[in-house]
């Protein structure tokens, strides 16, 4: 499982090693053994911009998820699970 972790928050310091270890444990428990996942830690301003751009909603939110797989609906499988954006301010 490949996990890309990016922290774009100007004030918060996220430990990517700890986050990656915990996330790998969660994904293993969910039986996701293969694939890729992208995780972005950001601030309220940036997540509000993404919320407006992709979901046409105003204001910040805690989490945005952009799944790439459609396993439950018989859709095509891709190694990319998706992107998760987390506002550290929320």
From TrEMBL:
GO molecular function terms listed in the Swiss-Prot or TrEMBL record: endonuclease activity; metal ion binding; metalloendopeptidase activity
BP term (GO), one: rRNA processing
InterPro entries, alphabetized: MetalPrtase_cat_dom_sf_prd (IPR023091), YbeY (IPR002036)
Cofactor(s) named in the record: Zn(2+)
Pfam families: YbeY
Family: Belongs to the endoribonuclease YbeY family.
Protein name as annotated: rRNA maturation RNase YbeY
Organism encoding this protein: marine sediment metagenome
